[in-house]
Amino acid sequence: MGIINNKATDPNKILPLTYPWAREHYKTGVSNNWVPEEIAMQKDVEQWKSASALSEKERRLILWNLGFFSTAESLTANNIVMAIYRHVTNSEARQYLLRQAYEEAVHTDTFIYCCDTLGLDPDHIYNMYNTIPSIKEKDDFVVNLTESIFDPDFTTAGTANIQRFIHDLIGYYVIMEGIFFYAGFAMMIALRRQNKMVGVGEQFEFIMRDESVHLAFGCDLINTIKKENPGAWSGSFAEQVTDLVRQAVVLEKRYAYDACPDGLLGINADQFSLYVEHIADRRLERIGLSKMYGTENPFPWLSESTDLNKEKNFFETRVTEYQTAGNLVWDD
């Protein structure tokens, strides 16, 4: 019996639980439920249409992030539905994967909602993964990292294949969701702190909160497979994983300097690069590896700004809050 290669899996039988942590992540996801239409965007529309409310640098940063995330969320959903679910054979883990797939659909819908509301050209936004090199490099990197699990003939039988599966899970959860998403989150939430594009910023806050749970589940999944299959986690493989994270940090820094080349009020690409190093260290430690950079978090306000238990004016928007926000340990 195990979380993979469990031929006795009964999709209708979750109890008794084998992995309570998977069930807890599912319950947290349900409690965190939201949809983009709950967030008011009128002020964002006014600022976007104004000739003076946003600088060209700020507009560039916003477009770069919408361009990256609009396709990245679809990429992550494809990984879950078409690949990971097939190989993770434990029932409660699969239940969480279904919940995560729904959340990825909500995130994809969020960028449709943002583009429609702001009147953006969808062909421009949804093709930026082809036209903007720093975005394309990140997407290509993850696609190359997750090739095995999309192979219809791939199985997780045997140590070599289990190792390959862990490799691909790290590419998806640790690098894509755990590193590549976070500079963009910081950029948009930093703008929101300056009272600019507050609706889009709040959408990003909700997505970031969801992603912290995705990341926690992914790391628990990776660590469980490691524990159950210790032969797959060799010293040379651990070095390979560390090198992949190092490469991912280089790409994410390149994207940060591309999206925010000259800096904005109170934020700049150097700070975003330090933040990427900080979260990369945390990701490495989360899967049992030594940190690489030793960089302090340059944005201590970031976890503060994502406390979504907030009061709102009833006549402006619905109150949108997480039912169990206090129960979730924030993973920045």
Automatic annotation (TrEMBL):
<keyword id="KW-0472">Membrane</keyword>
<keyword id="KW-0408">Iron</keyword>
<dbReference type="GO" id="GO:0004748">
    <property type="term" value="F:ribonucleoside-diphosphate reductase activity, thioredoxin disulfide as acceptor"/>
</dbReference>
<feature type="binding site">
    <location>
        <position position="177"/>
    </location>
    <ligand>
        <name>Fe cation 2</name>
    </ligand>
</feature>
<dbReference type="InterPro" id="IPR012348">
    <property type="entry name" value="RNR-like"/>
</dbReference>
<feature type="binding site">
    <location>
        <position position="73"/>
    </location>
    <ligand>
        <name>Fe cation 1</name>
    </ligand>
</feature>
<feature type="binding site">
    <location>
        <position position="107"/>
    </location>
    <ligand>
        <name>Fe cation 1</name>
    </ligand>
</feature>
<dbReference type="InterPro" id="IPR009078">
    <property type="entry name" value="Ferritin-like_SF"/>
</dbReference>
<dbReference type="GO" id="GO:0046872">
    <property type="term" value="F:metal ion binding"/>
</dbReference>
<dbReference type="InterPro" id="IPR000358">
    <property type="entry name" value="RNR_small_fam"/>
</dbReference>
<dbReference type="Pfam" id="PF00268">
    <property type="entry name" value="Ribonuc_red_sm"/>
</dbReference>
<feature type="transmembrane region" description="Helical">
    <location>
        <begin position="170"/>
        <end position="191"/>
    </location>
</feature>
<keyword id="KW-0560">Oxidoreductase</keyword>
<comment type="similarity">
    <text>Belongs to the ribonucleoside diphosphate reductase small chain family.</text>
</comment>
<protein>
    <recommendedName>
        <fullName>Ribonucleoside-diphosphate reductase subunit beta</fullName>
        <ecNumber>1.17.4.1</ecNumber>
    </recommendedName>
</protein>
<keyword id="KW-0215">Deoxyribonucleotide synthesis</keyword>
<dbReference type="InterPro" id="IPR033909">
    <property type="entry name" value="RNR_small"/>
</dbReference>
<feature type="binding site">
    <location>
        <position position="104"/>
    </location>
    <ligand>
        <name>Fe cation 1</name>
    </ligand>
</feature>
<keyword id="KW-0479">Metal-binding</keyword>
<keyword id="KW-0812">Transmembrane</keyword>
<feature type="binding site">
    <location>
        <position position="211"/>
    </location>
    <ligand>
        <name>Fe cation 2</name>
    </ligand>
</feature>
<feature type="binding site">
    <location>
        <position position="104"/>
    </location>
    <ligand>
        <name>Fe cation 2</name>
    </ligand>
</feature>
<keyword id="KW-1133">Transmembrane helix</keyword>
<dbReference type="GO" id="GO:0009263">
    <property type="term" value="P:deoxyribonucleotide biosynthetic process"/>
</dbReference>
<comment type="function">
    <text>Provides the precursors necessary for DNA synthesis. Catalyzes the biosynthesis of deoxyribonucleotides from the corresponding ribonucleotides.</text>
</comment>
<feature type="binding site">
    <location>
        <position position="214"/>
    </location>
    <ligand>
        <name>Fe cation 2</name>
    </ligand>
</feature>
